[in-house]
Amino acid sequence: METAAFESDAMLKLLTEALRRGPGSPEWHSAVSSLRNLNSPDADEYRLLITARERIESGRAYREVRAGPAFTRELFGQLGAPPASGRRVTLGLVIRLLCLLTLVGAIGVVMMYVAQAGPHDAQQLSSRLFVTPVRSWTFDPIPSELHHVGPLPMETRNGGLRAGSREVSEPTGGLLYADEPLDLVRGTCVELRFDYRPGPTSVQLTLMSDAIVNGPLAAVSAELALICDNAGVHVSTPASATAPRALSAGAHLLRLKVADGDAVAELDGQVVWNGPPRLGPRGFVAIRMIRDGKANDVTVRSLRVLAP
What we know:
Layout: H1 2-8, H2 10-21, H3 26-37, H4 43-58, H5 60-63, H6 69-79, H7 86-117, H8 122-127, E1 132-138, E2 146-149, E3 154-157, E4 160-163, E5 172-178, E6 182-183, E7 188-196, E8 201-208, E9 223-229, E10 232-236, E11 250-259, E12 262-267, E13 270-275, E14 282-291, E15 298-307
Antiparallel strand pairs: 1-15, 2-5, 3-4, 5-14, 6-14, 7-11, 7-15, 8-9, 8-14, 9-10, 11-12, 12-13
């Protein structure tokens, strides 16, 4: 019966739809207009419903939350700030610490590698400067600090050291050495200036492991020798020898650099060999000449010892 009454009451339907749609809707305006002209016992009750609905609608503004300009500025300012969460701050801190530890570890590894390679790295040793003179010899006459051994005599002529002019029938050697030991760990550079013409006489810049010399070619138990002969320039070590490179006639500079387990041999500033010297912590510098025949085609001008 109530359903039938509702369906037959047009005003009730209009009021129900107006309440459902809310103030401002066409149904609301229609319901309000109809109530003004309605003279029935239910009119007051309908007006109460309309008034209550209007008050509810007007009260919504007090429950709304709207973002003003200050809130918007603060929000965008916080977007670039670090996270406020303690967990996120801790995670970021852990990540930064891990990165820092990784960086410190990498630097430590590099420094350890550099310290181990240090001056005995071949490239660094080649570019390392030896500028402190330790000893220097010229040959007019032969200095008394240099000692001669071997069957091949040596003589001076025109301010240079040459093999003796006595003819020999087989390869014969002579050695001129200094008996003051050199520090091969801290670093030593020995250099020899000489004039060269291809022929039967060879000249060698030598670092010896000791000053005990014997044999027809004035050999030692262990030596590092930078050799210039008719075949070219080559290096002989206690463990190996290199193939000769071409050597032109003229003035040349030989260098042997040794430091802390590595050595470099240079001809006119160009590296011709590098490797371990295998001589121990100290060595002795020497000049060796070997001649086969009568020709005299090599003249040594000077010999020097330098430190870093």
